[in-house]
Amino acid sequence: MSRVVVVGSLNVDLHLLLQRHITPGETLLASGGTFSPGGKGANQACAAALAGAETTMCGAIGDDASSSVATSLLEAAGVDVSHVRRVPGPTGLAVVSVDAEGENSVVVVPGANAEVSPAMVDDWADVIAGADVVVLQGEISAASNLEASRLVRGRLVVNLAPVIDVAPELLLAADPLVVNEHEGTAALAQLGGRELTDPEAVVRGLRESGVSSVVMTLGAAGALIAHGDEVVTVASPRVRAVDTVGAGDAFCGALAARLAEGESLEAASAYAARFAAYTVQFEGAQASYPPRGTGLPT
């Protein structure tokens, strides 16, 4: 079985359901209030495992009571969590607000994720070097991401989410760089590219700046894929969105799993789009991911 290693964040999500998103100075009543496992790194690891890859999670949780929530669905999905460190202090927390249209806003308190240092990453050198695909995101420090990228011997997937200032070396090592429209524009700026707004132009600009391959996710519109001279569109199945939380992470994890199996970037992205489309039909992040063997929308 191919091996995916995710170096990144683990959070506990506090889930709030709103009729509409709040404005400054306003008080709204919400439903929900439940806690569930989240964090971009953990979400991606969970998705990779459910998509069929042997998956290892490298990250940190706190020594608080909620830490067991952060790893619960990873363990259920069969992710190796033996490299998740327990550190003093709180586990990362994300407050996730979802409106009646299924659109979300997220506020993240890093907690233990802020303790993932380059020195801690070095302790994972063997497991990172042994992976077919390594996945990184923006919820641990730029320095730790850069150190992890230097240890990769297989294929590196970088998801610049949330956007943080990173060394150009990290973006140029990505194969692919996975971004949405906003993240793609920010990544291009970090590489010294000119300001662009058209998604295809941004993808082309990233390729011209030296990024080996790019996947730009466009939500219900699918994704743009580029690794040669052409930009290819990958469609997403049409589904009714209930909750988009964790859908981008689901895409990244499923993409990594299929790339680890040796699939082409286009084929892996098409599968990832179907995997992510399944998730938006249900509430939550990891809790919405399809169990192994589940039929995906087409």
Question: What is the strand and helix layout of this fold?
Answer:
Layout: E1 3-7, E2 11-17, E3 31-38, H1 40-50, E4 54-61, H2 67-77, E5 80-86, E6 92-98, E7 104-109, H3 118-123, H4 125-129, E8 133-136, H5 142-151, E9 155-159, H6 168-173, E10 177-179, H7 181-190, H8 199-208, E11 214-217, E12 223-226, E13 231-234, H9 247-260, H10 265-279
Parallel strand pairs: 1-4, 1-8, 2-6, 4-5, 8-9, 9-10, 10-11
Antiparallel strand pairs: 2-3, 6-7, 11-12, 12-13
Helix pairs in contact: 1-2, 1-9, 7-8, 9-10
Could you explain how this protein is built, in words?
The protein has 298 residues and is an alpha/beta fold. The chain has a single domain (3-10, 38-90, 112-288), classed as Ribokinase (UDP-N-acetylmuramoyl-L-alanine:D-glutamate ligase, 3-Layer(aba) Sandwich). It contains 10 helices and 13 strands. The chain has helices spanning 40-50, 67-77, 118-123, 125-129, 142-151, 168-173, 181-190, 199-208, 247-260, 265-279; strands at 3-7, 11-17, 31-38, 54-61, 80-86, 92-98, 104-109, 133-136, 155-159, 177-179, 214-217, 223-226, 231-234. The strands form 2 sheets. A 9-stranded mixed β-sheet has the order 5-4-1-8-9-10-11-12-13, sandwiched between helices. Helix 9 runs antiparallel to helix 10 (265-279). The longest helix has 15 residues, at 265-279. The radius of gyration is 18 Å and the shape is globular.
